[in-house]
Amino acid sequence: MRGIRISGWGIAVPDKVVTNDDMALNLDTSDAWIVERTGIRERHIGGTTSGLAIEAGQAALDCAGRTAAEIDHLVLATTTPDGIVPGTAPSVQHALGIKGGAFDINAACSGFVYGLVTAAGLIAAGSGPIMLIGSETLSNITDMNDRAIAIIVGDGAGAVIIEPVDGAGGLLSWNLNSDGSLRHLLKCEHGGTLFMDGKEVFRKAVRVVVESAERAMADAGLGPDDISLLVPHQANLRIIQAACQRLGIPEERTAVVIDRYGNTSSASIPLALHDAIVGGRVHDGDHLLLTGFGGGMTWASAVLRWGG
Ligand code: COA
């Protein structure tokens, strides 16, 4: 039996910081409205999905003390690929010098958890170390003149190195879910811009996140008191708070970076995870509950035991 552990992490965000006050220069909105309704204070805008992924991936390699040649495969979660064909992962693979397979996963904001489970499956099937990246340039598919959506999006990337270990490893439980009948709630057609039914996404998100996170805890044989850190998708602070309350996990045990990065889709969970790790909030033996939701709709949760 082969399991996984995470041995390295890195992030990348564009240099350009756009504050809520900056947004209010062009849009009929205000810092007070955005902070109250979303928890967002600023976001980074710019770059390319591959460029951010390369930077985050290299940082994760350096952190793990690995060279690219030691990585077997690259899994890139993104909703905003550089192009339609080819996928963005091969560009990142080539730039970093990784040798094996490289492919994109598009599960919208659940992409990082989908990628984690995919990487664990590849490792169970015999793969060596895998690089998993979530990278997004949502600003490229957003009408920045539409205040209903422009204020929530941000660009960035987060990467981890996932290593095989003998035995069960750290992925204690997981579930992946989707419901395509809800695709109209959050979508972007070819050449178009993001459309979101914010209110309905909000309602559904709280329900599915709670249901899937509770299932992941139950499957791991754990309760809310056993979770050291909740690492949720960063879409709206009020969604995170509502989920915490219903799950019985206090907000102090939750990784929140939405104030600095906005909603970065599949990059949001690794950005939050990275912030918690470098902030000294993650220790060997800790149980981390990762949970995401997004367009599709898709939603997914996983429980990781850290270290080992
Ligand atoms: N600035 C100021 N006012 C705004 C605004 C903005 N950026 N956007 C909308 N408004 C106005 C609306 O026009 C509306 O005005 P009205 O009452 O005069 O009609 C009022 O604020 C309330 O709008 P509403 O859409 O009901 O706000 P909301 O509380 O639902 O917040 C979102 C909007 C988008 C922040 C919220 O619905 C949300 O976060 N939804 C979930 C989105 C999400 O998670 N997406 C990612 C999924 S991965």
How are the secondary structure elements laid out?
Elements (H helix, E strand, L loop, with lengths): L1 E11 L4 E3 H7 L4 H8 L3 E3 L4 H16 L8 E5 L11 H8 L5 E4 L5 H14 L5 E8 L9 H4 L4 E12 L4 E8 L7 E2 L7 E2 L1 H22 L9 E4 L4 H11 L10 H4 L6 H11 L8 E8 L3 E8 L3
Parallel strand pairs: 4-5, 4-6, 11-12
Antiparallel strand pairs: 1-7, 2-3, 6-7, 8-13, 9-10, 12-13
Helix pairs in contact: 3-4, 7-8
Bound molecules: coenzyme A.
The site of coenzyme A has 21 residues, from helix 2, helix 6 and helix 7.
Please characterize this protein's 3D structure.
This protein is an alpha/beta fold and 308 residues long. It folds into two domains: 2-166, Peroxisomal Thiolase, Chain A, domain 1 (3-Layer(aba) Sandwich), CATH 3.40.47; 171-305, Thiolase/Chalcone synthase (Peroxisomal Thiolase, Chain A, domain 1, 3-Layer(aba) Sandwich), CATH 3.40.47. The protein is 34% helix and 25% strand. It has ten helices and 13 strands. It has helices at residues 20-26, 31-38, 49-64, 89-96, 111-124, 147-150, 198-219, 237-247, 258-261, 268-278, and strands at residues 2-12, 17-19, 42-44, 73-77, 102-105, 130-137, 155-166, 171-178, 186-187, 195-196, 229-232, 287-294, 298-305. The strands form four sheets. A five-stranded mixed β-sheet has the order 1-7-6-4-5, sandwiched between helices. Helix 3 packs across helix 4 and helix 7 packs parallel to helix 8. The longest helix is centred in the last third of the chain and has 22 residues, at 198-219. It starts with a strand and ends with a strand. The relative contact order is 0.20. The mean pLDDT is 97. The structure holds coenzyme A.
